[in-house]
Backbone:
């Protein structure tokens, strides 16, 4: 049995000072591990309340049954290190505990920070602003005291906090979005303005929305994962997660009040997160998407499987160094070559079993930051971006739901219904052109750029005619 690092701090001292919305595998493996490490390092009363908004009642019930304790296994090939995390003070779910339970928690005097991992679609954005046509947002504006969306919950909770004469909060997004804090602030303020301009003014004055960059590969747990964790622990832990050893957290130092000392656990508080965000979104996430779409089309189950293929490995290496890295503003003190090489080794970690189809989800919301932003730079500077074009065309081909051998591929995407309708009646250049008309993905500029349209159309034809590996090989 592998040694288990247990909490060395007095859990009875912890107070509900931090609320995490969207408490899933990544929150357990990243935010809470930094928090746990901080508590190991200093005497602190920063406890955590975990909440989910829609699904996940059973997950929270299981955490309650284990007194809020769960295990994290850090895997590197055959090595496994175990930690038991004890930061939780309680869990809340509006459908289990009543809608006021969460809203009143936000209005608790001891609360200082709200962290969130709600994925891109949880912010209900369109063009960087709150999507007022979103059905959840529309309903929350009609019934603001019983919200269903994360944005509605935040605004109603802050309204109660204001009415109680309390201080503002720090709302810290931990999702993979460029300028995630600014986008969160925009959504919250837009919603508040439609509710009550004075409330919006209070939030603008009293609350802070720092940006952050998070990084830790955390695959979805499977039956095999839980079995591996149980073998290492000597008992089953239905709350546990497995992840890679690497973790990074860069946070804009912009808080409304006191903040946890996460820097004691290795987090970095900086003035500007943007260069770190771009580096991660383009080099790690962009490369992940490249491997996810093209690897899944070529019947590769995991990212590590992709990395064992010499053509895919060579192609993603060239993508990083030749097409992604040149578009970056490299943060001071960062060795970009060393960072990229470390990513390639992380991708090769067979213990993670990170599925290509998992990474391929929500592509319409991921593509703009991961691949299209650097392509816009290449177009402006007239640089080549052949591999990026194959990745974008790979997404389009993936969205047809079949691999090269005819195996079914899951298309989990907010635009899945619209994409499916397009794929059922078109293919080839017509299919490409219709997908390019999706303004939320490609904007207005890219469909009007003849070079871009021809490059994607050509890449799509190449993938259809020659398959993934030959198409990549011809581009190297």
Residues:
């Amino acid at each position: 049995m592998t040694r288990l690092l247990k909490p060395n701090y007095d859990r009875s001292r912890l107070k509900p000072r931090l609320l995490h919305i969207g408490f899933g595998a990544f929150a357990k493996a990243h935010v809470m591990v930094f928090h746990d490490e901080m508590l190991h390092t200093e005497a602190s009363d920063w406890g955590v309340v975990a909440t989910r908004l829609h699904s996940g009642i059973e997950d929270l019930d299981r955490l309650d049954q284990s007194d809020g304790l769960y295990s994290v296994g850090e895997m590197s090939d055959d090595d496994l290190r175990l930690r038991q995390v004890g930061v939780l003070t309680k869990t809340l779910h509006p459908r289990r505990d009543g809608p006021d339970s969460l809203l009143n928690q936000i209005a608790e005097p001891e609360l200082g920070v709200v962290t969130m991992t709600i994925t891109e679609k949880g912010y209900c954005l369109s063009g960087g602003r709150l999507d007022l046509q979103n059905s959840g947002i529309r309903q929350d504006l009609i019934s603001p005291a019983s919200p269903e969306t994360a944005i509605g919950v935040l605004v109603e909770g802050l309204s109660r906090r204001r009415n109680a004469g309390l201080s503002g909060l720090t709302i810290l997004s931990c999702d993979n979005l460029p300028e995630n804090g600014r986008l969160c602030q925009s959504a919250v303020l837009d919603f508040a303005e439609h509710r009550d301009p004075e409330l919006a003014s209070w939030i603008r004055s009293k609350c802070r929305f720092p940006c952050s960059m998070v990084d830790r590969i955390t695959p979805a747990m499977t039956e095999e994962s839980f079995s591996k964790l149980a073998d290492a622990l000597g008992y089953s832990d239905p709350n546990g997660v497995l992840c890679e050893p690497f973790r990074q957290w860069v946070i804009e130092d912009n808080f409304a009040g006191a903040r946890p000392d996460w820097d004691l656990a290795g987090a970095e508080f900086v003035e500007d997160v943007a260069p770190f965000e771009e580096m991660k979104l383009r080099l790690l996430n962009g490369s992940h998407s490249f491997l996810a779409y093209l690897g899944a089309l070529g019947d590769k189950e995991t990212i590590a499987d992709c990395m064992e293929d010499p053509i895919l490995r060579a192609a993603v290496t060239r993508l990083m160094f030749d097409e992604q890295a040149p578009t970056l503003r490299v943060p001071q003190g960062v060795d970009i070559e060393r960072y990229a090489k470390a990513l390639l080794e992380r991708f090769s970690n067979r213990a993670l079993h990170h599925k290509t189809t998992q990474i391929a989800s929500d592509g319409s919301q991921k593509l703009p930051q991961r691949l299209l932003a650097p392509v816009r730079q290449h177009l402006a500077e007239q640089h080549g971006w052949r591999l990026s074009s194959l990745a974008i065309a790979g997404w389009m081909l993936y969205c047809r739901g079949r691999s090269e051998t005819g195996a079914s591929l899951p298309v989990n995407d907010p635009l899945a219904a619209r994409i499916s309708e397009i794929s059922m009646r078109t293919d080839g250049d017509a299919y490409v052109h219709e997908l390019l008309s999706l303004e939320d993905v490609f904007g207005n500029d890219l469909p009007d750029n003849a070079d871009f349209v021809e490059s994607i159309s050509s890449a799509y034809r190449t993938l259809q005619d020659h398959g993934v590996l030959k198409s990549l090989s011809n581009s190297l």
User: Anything to note?
Assistant: The chain has a mean pLDDT of 96. The first helix runs from residue 25 to 29. The first strand starts at residue 4 and ends at 5. Residues 14 and 121 are 32 Å apart (CA to CA).
